[in-house]
Amino acid sequence: MVTYVRSYWPERRPQRQRRRADRDAARWTYDEVGADQEVLRRIEMRADDGTYLAAVDHAEVRSVGTNPQEMAADTFEELWRLARCQLNGEAEVWIEQVCPAVEDGLPVVVRCVGGRVRPGSRFLRVRETGEPVTITVVRIQRYDRDVAELTPLHTGVLILSSTGSPWVLAGHHLEGRTV
Q1: What pLDDT does residue 140 have?
Q2: Quick one: DSSP state of residue 153?
Q3: Which of 7-11, 68-72, 110-114: highest mean pLDDT?
Q4: pLDDT tens digits, residue range 94-108?
Q5: So what's the pLDDT on residue 146?
Q6: Which residue among 34, 57, 118, 161 has its CA within the 20 to 30 Å range from the CA of 43?
Q7: HSE on the CB side for 3, CA within 13 Å?
Q8: How far apart are CA 121 and CA 118, in angstroms?
Q9: Alpha helices in 27-167 (DSSP H)
Q10: CA-based nearest residue to 109, from 59, 144, 78, 72
């Protein structure tokens, strides 16, 4: 039987020796554990800012962290998808509303559901139809201000350019690569 656990790994260095990108920093791990207590998949996330450090299959680890807590399989699967998206440079948005075209492109209200979306990111496929598209993000706005990126679970307005706009419909997901 497979179980899913979340564990906390405390800081392993004294405060004066810490470096932000150090692998010894406090972190959370999310593990899929097989019947023989072998870790099948592991996600590592830095505890201070939520940055994904790794998402690997058949992790070669000796144990789970301190005080492991069980978690639901669907929660683990969503974390796995988000981590893989971010670590692989993928981007995915769900289109909430398509607005009338403006001078510099097609504005769409979206929710980022995977990876990071930045100006220059390219969407290459509509998930629901499998239709290949070529759509480039020209600008991103949140609260009527231009922003540098859109991260998972945030909503914003993407100004899209290039071909593919006939397939940009509310309720569809666009998948692609970030820059």
Answers
A1: 97
A2: T
A3: 110-114
A4: 999 999 888 889 999
A5: 96
A6: 118
A7: 11
A8: 5
A9: 73-88
A10: 144
Q: How far apart are CA 28 and CA 53, in angstroms?
A: 10
Residues 4 and 27: their CA atoms lie apart, in Å, by: 17
CB burial string 132-146: b at 16+ within 10 A, e below: ebebbbbbbeeeeee
Rounded to whole angstroms, how far apart are CA atoms 115 and 40?
Answer: 23
Cα–Cα distance between 12 and 153 in angstroms, integer? 31
Token pair 């993407």 is at which residue?
158
The SS3 of residue 167 is: helix
pLDDT tens digit string along 32-78?
888 887 888 888 888 877 778 888 887 555 556 666 788 888 888 88
| Count of residues making up the chain | 179
pLDDT at position 23: 53
CA-based radius of gyration for the chain: 19
What the block records as the tokens of 114 is: 């995977």
- Taking a C-beta distance cutoff of 8 angstroms, is the pair 142, 150 a contact? yes
Alpha-carbon gap, residue 149 to 141, rounded angstroms:
9
